[in-house]
Amino acid sequence: MKKSLGAKTLLYPAPILVVCTYDKEGSPNAMTAAWGGICCSAPPCVAVSLRKATYSYDNLMLKKAFTINIPSENYAKEADYFGIASRHKEDKFAKTGLTAVKSDHIDAPYIREFPINLECKVIQFIELGLHTQFIGEVMDVKMDESIQEKGGQSIIEQIKPLIFAADSGHYYGVGKQVAQAFSIGKDLLKKEK
């Protein structure tokens, strides 16, 4: 039997995404967001939803560019800090000691120490209520060479991305591999005659 919990944002897992932007003075900022993910294959696009009250919201509206940075488990403390501190009050990069690097294709910084960085230009934004969803076309992906297989595919066990459980407010790591995608379900496909 199921119990109704009402309308909630309980979608598992939620990725931990660190969104980086420049402000009007060209100073870098980073904020953590869990409301985001892939939204289109061609062109490759990601979406992230931010509240208007955030410093990053104004930067996105001004620069029309952002990076999505995927922190590893080793940077859980810094990723959490980026989500609870305000750029209005302190320089987050100075406080964490992480490195803001100017992107090659857009007007936004990425975090050198994080294993994966997506450079995105804003192609659309949608007012949803408390949040505004920014859709960014991915202009380039940067990945540490140490976590690449043949063909440039990432090895998730080496990346060790953080995920978020909204109900408990806890961060988790990625578990064991369960099956091969686009393969395990083939046994259930209707057989052709």
Automatic annotation (TrEMBL):
Protein's recorded name: NADH-FMN oxidoreductase RutF, flavin reductase (DIM6/NTAB) family
Keywords carried by this UniProt record: Flavoprotein
Taxonomic lineage: Bacteria, Bacillati, Bacillota, Negativicutes, Selenomonadales
Annotated Gene3D superfamilies: Electron Transport, Fmn-binding Protein, Chain A
Superkingdom: Bacteria
Entry coiled-coil feature ranges: none
Classification via InterPro entries: Flavin_Rdtase-like_dom, Flavoredoxin, Split_barrel_FMN-bd
SUPFAM superfamilies, alphabetized: FMN-binding split barrel (SSF50475)
